[in-house]
Every structure is written in C-alpha cells, then in structure tokens.
Amino acid sequence: MRPSARFVAPVVFLVAAGCAAPGLSAPSAAARHASADTVFLTTSSPSAVGPDLSAAVSALRDAAPRAPEESGGGAEIVSTAPRVSSESDAVGPYRQPEWTTRRRFARTRIYVLPEGQWEFEQWYRGTYDKGEAPGHKWQTEIGVGLPGRFQFDLYATGEHEDGGPTKSIGLQPELRWAPADWGVIPLNPTLYLEYKWNHHANDVAEGKILLGEELSPCTHWGMNLSVEQELGGAKTQELAMMQAVSWTVVDRKFSIGLEFEVDRVTEHGARDNPEWEYYAGPSFQWRPTDETHLDIVPLRGWHDGHDWRLFVVFGIDFGGSGPKSPMSPVSAKSR
C-alpha cells in the first residue's frame, strides 16, 4: 500500500462517524505517539520506502511526544476540554435521551417531560382542499413534567372559518404516564389520556399508547395507537395509527424525517361503513437555540382525507441550565 493511502482511511472513518461522534477532543500524547508508530511502521521496514522517507520517519518518531510512563513522569494527564453535549445524551431523572424532552413530531408523541421541565408551544394547523377555502386553527399549549413519570398539558384552541370570525373552540387537558424509566421496557410505552371540552360541538375523549425508541444516535422513531370517541350527537369514533422517523443532520440543530398517519372514522349505527384517511409527508425541525424549536410538517392526504394538512409548531422549553437541572446530562449530575 502506498504511504498516501494510509492517511485516507482515518479521514474516511471520521467522516462516516457522523453525528455518532458529535465532538472530538484532541488526542492524548500517548495516542499521538501510538498513531505515529501505527501509520509509519506498518511497512516491512523504513528502508523499504526509500532512504529519504526513512530519515523523515525516524525524525518524526524522535519528535513525537512520549506518554508519562515512557518519559519517566508519573503524573496523570487530565483533559480540561469542555464536554460536547449531544441530543442522544441521557438527561433528567428518567435517563431519557435529550431529544425526547421536546416535541420532535407533529402527530406522534413520545414519552414524557423530565420532572420539573416546562414547555410552551404555539401551533398552526391548516387544512387545504381543492376548490374549497382553507381552514385555519391555532393552538396554544403549556406542559409540565411531574414526579413519578407523569406529564400534564393544557391546550387552548381557536379556529377561523372562511367568512367568519376567529373564535375559541375549546380546552383540552392531557395527562401522560410512563410505567418505567427510559430503556427499561422495550419501546418505552407511555399511556395518554385527553379530554376535549368543545364550546360549539360535543365533547370528545381520547386515549393513546405512545411508543418511542432511539434506533441509533442519529435515528429516532415513534408510533402512537389511539381511539377518539365523541360523547354525543353521532358519537363519531376515530381509530388512528401515527408513525414517524427522523434523522439528525446537524446534532441539536437540524433534523429531517417522515410522518405517516391512517385514520378509520365511523359513526354510531354505521361502524361497518368506515371512512379512511391517509396522510404522509416530510418533517423538519430547526433548533435556533438549545431551548427553542421550530417544526414544519406538510402532510399529503388521500382517500377521504384533506388534500393537504400543514403543521407549524414553535416551542420554548424551560428546564434550567445548572448541573442539577432536568436538562443536564446524567453524567454531570454527580459532579
């Protein structure tokens, strides 16, 4: 193998590592010395590559820093470089990945907030059908992580219909509970209950099972199974399955993904004659700062669904920044 080829492999390895290695610290003296020996001494002998290169190899070998045990010193070298955090770091009392502490998907929920963390989110939901005026909804949400792996959320929703005023349409309290810390039970199941107090329609109750997993430090997945029941009128029932996956492009800054949803909608007395709605589309999340995120998710509809649905979510998280805060890496809490 030519000497130049020996420099290509380490570069290819570092590029392929991607977000699995979000921060690389400077190598220790021992590592630098070891790497010099590894790169330059893998040929059968220095003279095999020519006298000039052999002399250069010897000079580099003599100039390479020696580890303490080789130079006669016994002092331990301790790196003072700051630790680079990653969205796959375990944080909070439930040891969950950092990316689960904020909403990653528009239609798929995952796990719970860490105890003591608050979040504020402002939503826009638009529906667009060919030949019809678009529908617009706005939703304001406040959520808080509670002890015992509980989370409570409260939504206030308004809508604007074509030719009419913007009006409040209801409140939605929501409660989640995760039976175990993250990683203890496969897929990290979480139970979800929501009640919709509607001002101009019948109330609705909804239950979900939330599932989520980190497939790799760069790949996140979630799935929800839900049933929504109207409590009066036609007693409309909706069974739904939502599924989503995302890939980290820039760690803690930008992610892309895909979301998919299928809904089965029936009314009382006609449960065997359902309407089917299918939606799929890309998702994008940009995190301008560690505490904020912006999600844009356009979903194309088929069959009985809307032609398009657009979700835009802006969120702010309040969890503190000290070593004991819910957002601090678990490894930092004992310092």
Number of strand elements: 14
Question: How many domains would you count in the coordinates?
Answer: 2
Under CATH at level 1, the class of the largest domain stands as Mainly Beta
The geometry reads as globular
CATH topology-level fold name of the largest domain: Porin
Q: How large is the share of residues in beta strands?
A: 35-45%
**How many H/I helical runs?**
4
- The mean pLDDT is 82
Name the strands of the widest sheet in spatial order.
3-4-5-6-7-8-9-10-11-12-13-14
- Alpha carbon gap, first and last residue: 47 Å
Q: Please state the CA-atom Rg, rounded to the nearest Å.
A: 27 Å
Please, could you describe this protein's structure?
- There is one protein chain.
- The chain has 4 helices and 14 strands.
- The chain has 335 residues and is mainly beta.
- A hairpin with a 6-residue loop joins strand 3 and strand 4.
- The longest helix has 13 residues.
- The two termini are 47 Å apart.
